[in-house]
Write a structure and sequence with these properties.
Elements lengths: L1 E4 L9 H10 L4 E4 L11 H8 L2 E8 L4 H12 L4 E5 L3 H8 L6 E3 L9 H10 L2 E5 L1 H5 L2 H20 L4 E4 L11 H11 L3 H22 L3 E3 L2 E5 L6 E5 L11
Parallel strand pairs: 1-2, 2-3, 3-4, 4-5, 5-6, 6-7
Antiparallel strand pairs: 8-9, 9-10
Helix pairs in contact: 1-2, 4-5, 8-9
Length: 250
């Protein structure tokens, strides 16, 4: 299971500190998705080796309008493993779900709306919808109540239209992180089963594995990989369309 984190300078904790805490809580990886690609000045491979946890390079595109967001997504898509769009604004929510180049629409209910039309588009384009538990865990009173109501509505849409999704506490410090088992109780309040909570956490890892494969030299197109024929050295294709989006063990 993975978490999608914000690390210094986009958050209060370093990428290494986020990774260490995530590893202690039993996560297999973290996706560092700083807004605007703010550099952590950290060696992700070294962090991964030190703490025994996968560290994935990501970005959360934040823009004033869809036209600016489109340019940013295009810039980051080829060089970043996981591309998210900072949601909440209804216009940006719509933009994100219409773009197959976008992996995740982050926190779409934070200040905006999400309806059945957007759910259908997200399902059609394979855009993951994020269930951010940040407001549920870190707000109080009426704000928390509204956050729970918003996420319940989002869950109903996601289940009705079979929309892929990720789940996160959207941490900006290692103190925000919670163990997966603890999130099961929060998910139950929203109507999720424990298995669905785990599914949302594992989906970050699925995205990372799929996109790393696509960025490799072996990738040709969905379902087709380039390889070497052991008999004559000629290039051949291996059809993996039966499982184009393989589920990693963690």
């Amino acid at each position: 299971m993975y978490e999608g984190v914000h690390a210094r300078p986009d958050g209060a904790s370093t990428a290494a500190r986020q990774a260490l805490t995530a590893a202690e809580y039993g996560y297999s990886g973290v996706v560092v998705r700083n807004h605007g690609g703010q550099s952590c000045d950290a060696d992700y491979d070294e962090i991964a080796e030190t703490y025994g946890i996968d560290v994935v390079d990501g970005v959360e595109v934040r823009a004033e309008d869809p036209s600016r967001a489109s340019g940013f997504v295009g810039n980051y898509r080829e060089k970043t493993t996981v591309v998210c769009v900072h949601g909440g604004d209804t216009r940006l929510n719509r933009f994100a779900v219409e773009q197959p180049a976008v992996d995740v629409l982050a926190h779409p209910m934070d200040g905006g709306d999400f309806n059945h039309v957007l759910a259908k588009e997200a399902a059609r384009n394979g855009v993951r919808i994020e269930f951010s538990l940040a407001r549920v865990l870190r707000e109080q009173g009426g704000t928390r109540v509204r956050a729970v109501q918003d996420l319940r509505k989002l869950r109903e849409l996601v289940e009705t239209y079979d929309v892929p999704f990720v789940l996160s506490v959207d941490p900006t410090t290692h103190l925000h992180l919670r163990a997966p088992r603890d999130l099961g109780a929060v998910g139950a309040v929203l109507g999720f089963s424990e298995a669905q909570v785990e599914q949302g956490l594992r989906e970050w890892g699925r995205l990372a594995e799929r996109n790393r494969e696509r960025q490799s030299d072996r990738y040709v197109e969905p379902g087709v990989r380039a390889g070497e024929d052991e008999q004559n050295g000629a290039a051949r294709s291996v059809d993996s369309a039966a499982d184009p989006d393989p589920d990693p063990d963690e």
